[in-house]
Amino acid sequence: MSKKTSEAWIAGQTVRVGLRVLKVRAVLGGAGDHRPGSFLLTNLAGALLYSFVPGRGLASITFERAISLLATSGILIEQAAPKAVQRAAYHAEMRRRINALEFDHV
pTM of the entire structure? Predict the structure, then answer.
């Protein structure tokens, strides 16, 4: 038996998109019809950014694209996703450090 669950698609809530569990970081304005045009999402670690448009699906986006979406929606970046920005920078630094390591092969 499958149950349909309603999820709250508001900033700060966790939602499921397909097999992914993501966090809503911002609800971006639509075309004036009182429905959101898209959602800015991150993975739970905050390292990956996604745009979700109902009826069109999920797309991985760059940090620059996220800034563009937020700017065009009139949302201040500092209010929309400060933790996502911090975590993305942290994970990028950790990836850089790991890639810089040299491993001895036995």
Answer: 0.60
Tokens of 72: 């065009």
Residue 59's SS3 state is strand
Adjacent-strand bridge partners of 22: 15, 43
**Residue from 6, 68, 18 nearest 38 by CA:** 68
Confidence band, pLDDT 50/70/90 cuts, at residue 4 = low
Long-range Cβ contact pairs of 27-34 (< 8 A, separation 24 or more): 28/69, 28/70, 28/73, 28/75, 29/73, 29/74
Q: pLDDT for 38-82, tens place per residue?
A: 899 999 888 899 999 888 889 999 888 888 887 777 655 455 557
For the beta carbon of residue 47, count every other beta carbon within 10 angstroms.
16
Burial environment of residue 52 by CB neighbours within 10 A (0 to 12, 13 to 18, 19 or more) = buried
* CA–CA gap between residue 100 and residue 103 (Å, rounded): 10
Joined together, the tokens standing for residue 29 give 């304005």
